[in-house]
């Protein structure tokens, strides 16, 4: 039985290794993070130059607030979109947290209230801002 080797062009193999390493590093950093606020840049859509298209909707130029779930989108002149949002915090012995001000714009909508348990089982509440780090 002969073994068959797959041949990859040199650039493809390097891109695959680099991409895998970048994804692994990102996952490790996410596990260490207590706060899950985020920022990302969505590249411009080449089919719609100079326009910001988000989930099929045309955004106005500049800042767009009130995008569920608690996000702020900034439409740039080139059509790229900066997306900022808050996630949820992981707090030991607490529930997933409920948004206190759901109707407020980002980042005010990121304030969360958690119901937690003391060692004796009695409940207590804490508030945290999930936009920190965004």
Automatic annotation (TrEMBL):
Key word Protease present: no
Pfam families: SVWC (PF15430)
One cellular-component annotation, GO: extracellular region
The UniProt record lists the keyword Secreted: yes
Single domain location: 52-116
Compartments, record wording: Secreted
Alphabetically ordered keywords of this record: Secreted
SMART domains: SVWC (SM01318)
Protein name: Single domain-containing protein
Native species: Drosophila virilis
